[in-house]
Amino acid sequence: MDAARRVIDNGAVAVRGDKIIAVGPAAEIAAQHPARQRVDRPNALLIPGLINTHCHGPMVLLRGIADDLNLQDWLKKYIFPAEGKLVSPEFVRQGTRLAAWEMIRGGITAYADMYYFEEVIAEETKRAGMRGLLGQTIIKFPVADAKTPEIAMQRADAFMAKYKNDPLIVATVAPHAPYTNSDAMLQACRLLADKYGVPVVTHLSETARENEDSRQEFKTSPTKRLENIGFFNGPTLVAHAVWLDEADIDILARRKVGVAHNPGSNTKLASGIAPVVRMLDKGIAVGVGTDGPAGSNNDLNLFEEMDLAAKLQKVTLRDPRALNAEQAFAMATILGARAMSMESKIGSLEAGKLADLVVLSQDPFKIDPLRLHETKVLTTVFNGRVVYDVR
Fold first, then answer.
1. Fewer Cβ within 10 Å of end Cβ, the chain: N or C?
2. What is the pLDDT of residues 100-110, one digit of tens each?
3. Are 132 and 169 in contact (CB under 8 A)?
4. DSSP label at residue 364
5. What's the CA angle centered on 313, arms 308 and 318, to 5 degrees?
6. What mean pLDDT do residues 54-62 have?
7. Residue 302's closest CA among 47, 32, 118, 120?
């Protein structure tokens, strides 16, 4: 996934410490870089680590709590009440451990998350060796880790200070959504992210109802509202972006806002189909995400999300060439890295980038016909260190 989108037959990657130092034909790499440790994987494919641009990891523990609902009913009648009763630091710790394991065995090496007790999520993400853009949630009503948004902001500030310049964790602030925060709080979140030089993370225009409510209350779309209050004045990652008009898309393009597309969640909750091709055509960095592994999706499989993202654009645009395989794969790698403001470090196999690598089996006899979307990951490498390996 470098600029030339090279596919190298019989290729190899040389790693020193936590960085890639060379990429090319295996014979050439072996001759130029004698290795203390060599991993040979015939009949396999070496790719950049996958990047999950939107997740609520601990929600793995809420699977099965409610299905076949729209977003508002799912949140207000089931998820918010359940979280109020169940979410604690230990709940978050155990949920993050399970989510990290699922992502690692699925080839995901970096992810963006927003939840409660995000400092606990950071501890477990770092313990697993993963890379995370992790946002402390800010929301206008009492939640498990903060009775007020002001308290949540204090927690976010402390969290961001603790992980400033961490090699694996980018700690940030994550206002839940425009409809769950005031203008003043959204502006405060922007300023706090700018203080630490990190992207701010939020949900945006996930449902038609969200847009309708915004036009009734604020006389404009959620995107234009955020633009009007200066929310996009620094690096920003927004999740969903389903209900955008052309003016909204132009704003996101002009402000270089990253977008996390969540096709599994958007279809399961019947939220809609995001205008991915239009956003890509405008130069927006669109990554792909799993969303929360509860009723909004139920798994953390990025291969499944790539597949669904492409098929939804094809059927919506009635064009089988829309969002081809290379573009879908770019969304899970280099475009996802750009959406998270990490493209200088990860997202492609290039000398100088961090060694986040994944090896996939190409052995047709190891494919389970009942679980075709679970592409066989043989090896996952974070920062040059093998953390998962199937022999």
1. C
2. 999 999 999 99
3. yes
4. G
5. 125
6. 95
7. 47
